[in-house]
Specification:
Helix content is 54%, strand content 11%. The protein is α/β, with parallel strands linked by helices. Strand 3 (46-50), helix 3 and strand 4 (73-78) form a beta-alpha-beta unit.
Length: 197
């Protein structure tokens, strides 16, 4: 199954996979909830997920698939290959994490690797994750801060998290304080510089 909100990328990957004798695309989706519905209906062996999709990101979809369809292995293909994203994906049970900039010859082999139960992590992303170290933020604070990084107002973050607006403000304040930043924007900049987001 392929899930990516960029139709051109998803279509190109589907066309590449169609050239392989042993691989078949059984479903395509453009958003997180649609990917979950398609996976439930088609039970794919491997789900190739975009990291950032409308409705639910690829890691959230992978987490749900791991619980609901344990036989479905997941991989993330992304333009946003930051060490923090990689660590979060691996913690969620994602079997492969690759940049969309890989050569056209690589995806089929990586899908086969994942299907066989093995892992594949782009070497440059892995090196970046190791050198970046760990973020001092708890996973929940990091998630709230990441929602705020896109400029979402507190009310929207509270709805998406789901948390109360007061809890969101507390998480944002605590995150900035823990990172030694004067405000949320400075915290985001610091996290990006260190590769945590």
């Amino acid at each position: 199954m392929l899930a990516d909100d960029e139709h051109l990328i998803r279509g190109a990957l589907a066309a590449l996979i169609a050239l392989e004798d042993d691989l078949v695309v059984v479903a395509e989706a453009a958003a997180g909830p649609e990917a979950l519905a398609m996976a439930r209906a088609r039970c794919p062996d491997v789900a190739v997920l975009d990291l950032q999709m409308p409705g639910a990101d690829g890691v959230s979809v992978a987490t749900s698939l791991r619980a609901e369809l344990p036989g479905c292995r997941t991989m993330i293909a992304t333009c946003h290959g930051r060490p923090g994203h990689l660590k979060r994906a691996l913690a969620a049970g994602v079997r492969a994490f690759v940049p969309k900039a890989v050569s056209a010859r690589q995806p089929a082999g990586i899908i086969r690797t994942v299907h066989a139960g093995n892992r594949y992590v782009d070497p440059e992303l892995a090196a970046g994750a190791i050198s970046a170290g760990d973020s001092p933020l708890t996973l929940r604070k990091a998630e709230v801060r990441e929602l705020a990084a896109g400029g979402a107002p507190v009310a929207e973050i509270a709805e998406r998290a789901p948390l109360s607006q007061g809890t969101v403000r507390n998480h944002l304040s605590a995150a900035a304080s823990k990172l030694g930043a004067e405000n949320c924007h400075a915290a985001v900049r610091l996290e990006r510089e260190r590769g945590w987001v």
